[in-house]
Amino acid sequence: MLQTMRDNAQSWVAKVIVGIIVLIFALTGWESINRFTNKADEAAEVNGEPISKLELEQAVALQRRQLMQQLQQMGSQFDPSMIDEAFLRSTVLDGMIERSVLIQGAQEAGFQISDQMIDQLILSTPDFQVDGKFDANRFDVVIRNMGMPSRMAFRDLVRQQLLITQYRNGYEATSFATPLESKQLAALENQTRDFAALAMPVDDVDTEVTDAEVEAYYAANAQQFMTPERVVLNTLTLSRKSFFDQVEVDDEAVQQLYEREIGNLAEQRRASHILVEIGDDEAAAKARIDEAAARIAAGEDFAKVAEEMSDDTGSSRDGGDLGYIVKGSFDQAFDDALFALQPGEVSAPVRTSYGFQLVKLTDLKAPEVPSLDSMRDQLVQELKTEQVERSFVDASQQLANLAHEAPDLAEPAAALGLTVETLGPVERLGGEGLAANPKVMNAAFSDDVLNNGFNSDLIELDADTVVVIRVKQHLTPEQRPLADVSADIRTQLAHTKAEQAAAEKADQLVEQLRSQALTVDAAAEQAGLEWQQHEAVGRGENQIDQALLRNVFAMPKPEADKPVYASFKRAAGGYWLVVLNGVSVAEDVQSAEGGADQYGLFVAGQSGQQDFAAAQQQLRSEAEVERY
Questions:
Q1: Which residues have C-beta within 8 Å of that of residue 544, sequence separation ≥ 6?
Q2: Are residues 67 and 36 in the same domain?
Q3: Domain end: 418, 448, 475, which one?
Q4: Which is more confidently placed, 397 or 34?
Q5: Which of 250, 275, 353, 597 could form a disulfide with 312 if both were Cys (CB 3.0 to 4.6 A apart)?
Q6: DSSP string of 349-415?
Q7: Has residue 608 been placed in a domain?
Q8: What secondary structure, in 3-state letters, does 143-158 show?
């Protein structure tokens, strides 16, 4: 528990920095910074500020994609059609509304985020670094992959999230604990207990189950003894890899592809730049870039001017260096300027999507041209892949059409040279091979396939495999004979009786101990077992059964040296008989080094979270929210 306290007592600011960007994109995507005014295009409105339908749909799509990625990483096979779209959309919209409410609350409270804070967060984010150092190229690539249209849009998004974090910190980082609260928690945490436990197994109780009891249980629980609904399936599987042996590639095609590939090799240009971002005053930004151009034209070092004047804080520290670039890495205006330069030349001021820029070409790298022999295997594979792709798509479409029209799978199999295979019997929950795929089992037990006797639609197992199925035999649930299940019933009833007998025996021993009709030693002798003695056991003890430990610490404190008795069910079966002899608390729990502060931080952290949750709830209850 002390480790939990330490974890919860860490700086909230430090925790927020880690993963802040991933969190916000998981919730809403960058489009949350945009607002639309047309009511027909709105999904909701929070205190007069709209949330657009487009924004909601993009956020739902992002959340769905991340859910699928997480399931794939865990090795799960999951059919996207099984996602409850209405529930997902409602949940995402709820999150967007909550976020809007918090941003408005932070703004009304007067919280602000400085540009320097945003810069520091961006510069220290590992995703934007190469070899531990911020890289402007990497930054642009990452935010572009996130769907961000510009650096300014990303900065606005980070500003919003930091506002929410700052607002939360106003509650969580300023909460405190009173000395009494710290002392009470310390006393509970440092408490130890002296007790003895007697493990009473079920096996020690003699039980007998009659035939009449088995028959009565079978009759009363008939639904438990039905065979599962099952199907036997006929399947046709079409695999992309089966087409590779059917295609051939000639040397002329290989030569043509080789020439095309080496023709696409591009030179790399190392560039430096000076960026002046355009805010509300474009004229002022143009004046600044002209000033930088004039200083360079007058002979000043480009790197020095970049360090002083560039708004790209990541590259300005390196004299504006962007590293090696190929055509298409940035927008067209930047490319036009860079690829018109000779080494050492500086462009005139150019307006790009990033702002006004001066571009300098510092180095050239000619492309390395590999030989045809070194690329032959790769080129042949690529040409085969193109042919296989066309053949696989055509065959898949043909299989889908034939399966839709044919009364069984024999005709499609003959037309495509495939073999009809039999699978099953399998239950609704699936089995092995194809039966392990949820898409196959959903189709097998669909109304058209199961009840109407149709072939299934084309089922895509993965990017390289499709299958069509048909129910060959439907095995409906049937009552299992008593003779088949009587042994299981007898075992179950015997165990239940044994558990009941053990519970009664444990309760009886506890009552005898409480009434002093039986001594502790006599109870052990009567049970034929030995007491396990435990002295000064703390809550964090890991050598004792945790369920037993939790129950022991839930027992009331003995009064006047009078032991407390109780019995508890064991997870493995049977019961614990427990004698609690004493409860001890350290005389001065605050004397431990750092102890009291740690308890106080834990209590303060919990209180701060509760305060923020209450504030959030109040903002939500007072907000005027309309859903469209």
A1: 534, 537
A2: yes
A3: 475
A4: 397
A5: 275
A6: PEEETTEEEEEEEEEEEPPP---HHHHHHHHHHHHHHHHHHHHHHHHHHHHHHHHHHSSSSHHHHHH
A7: no
A8: HHHCCCCCHHHHHHHH
Q: Note the maximum CA span of the chain.
A: 108
User: Is 606:8 a contact under the CB 8 Å cutoff?
Assistant: yes
| pLDDT at residue 464 greater than cutoff 60 | yes
Structural domain including 99 reads 2-176+616-627
With bands split at pLDDT 50, 70 and 90, how would you rate the model's confidence at 273? very high
* List of residues 6+ apart from 312 with CB closer than 8 A: 136, 273, 275, 320
Q: What is the pLDDT of residues 395-427, one digit of tens each?
A: 888 888 888 888 888 888 888 888 888 887 888
Is 48 or 68 the better-scoring residue by pLDDT? 48
What sign does the dihedral 396-399-401-403 (CA atoms) show? negative
pLDDT in tens, 482-507: 888 888 888 888 888 888 888 888 88
Single residue among 475, 504, 537 that ends a domain in this structure? 475
Pair (217, 75) in one structural domain: no
7 shares its domain with 146 = yes
Q: Is residue 339 located within the same domain as residue 385?
A: no
Residues 18 and 156 grouped into a single domain: yes
Report the alpha-carbon distance of residue 461 to residue 223 in Å, rounded.
Answer: 35
- Cα–Cα distances (Å) from 360 to 330, 334, 344, 579, in that order, read 14, 11, 7, 83
Is residue 598 assigned to a domain? no
Confidence band, pLDDT 50/70/90 cuts, at residue 594: very low
57: which residues sit within 8 A by CB, 6+ positions away? none
Q: Position of tokens 């199999």?
A: 413
Residue 263 to residue 265: CA distance in whole angstroms: 6
Q: Which two tokens stand for residue 376?
A: 């032959």
Three-class SS of 171-235: HHCCCCCCHHHHHHHHHHHCCEEEEEEEEECHHHCCCCCCHHHHHHHHHHCHHHHECCCEEEEEE
pLDDT, greater one: 311 or 130: 311
**Among the ranges given (65-69, 301-305, 330-334, 530-534), the one the predictor scored with the smallest mean pLDDT:** 65-69
Instruction: Locate 407 and state its tokens.
Output: 């009364």
- Structural tokens at position 242: 């089966």
Tokens of 371: 């030989």
Say whether pLDDT at 6 is over 70: no
**Beta strands 129-130 and 355-365: pairing type?**
unpaired
> Quick one: 405 and 359 in the same domain?
no
pLDDT at 78 over 80: no
The total number of structural domains that make up the chain: 4
Distance of CA 588 to the CA centre of its chain: 44
Q: Which residues contact 344 (CB under 8 A, 6 or more apart)?
A: 360, 361, 362
H or E element that contains 7? helix 2-8
pTM, entire model: 0.42
Spatial distance between the Cα atoms of 297 and 381, rounded to a whole number of angstroms: 53
> Does 590 reside within a domain?
no
Does residue 413 sit within a domain?
yes
Confidence tier at 5 by pLDDT (50, 70, 90):
very low
Give the closest residue to 255 by CA, choosing from 388, 369, 373, 368. 373
**Residue 470 CA: distances (Å) to CA of 236, 385, 495:** 9, 31, 44
Q: Do 168 and 211 belong together in one domain?
A: no
458 and 499 belong to one structural domain: no
Q: Is 322 exposed, middle or buried (0-12, 13-18, 19+ CB in 10 A)?
A: buried
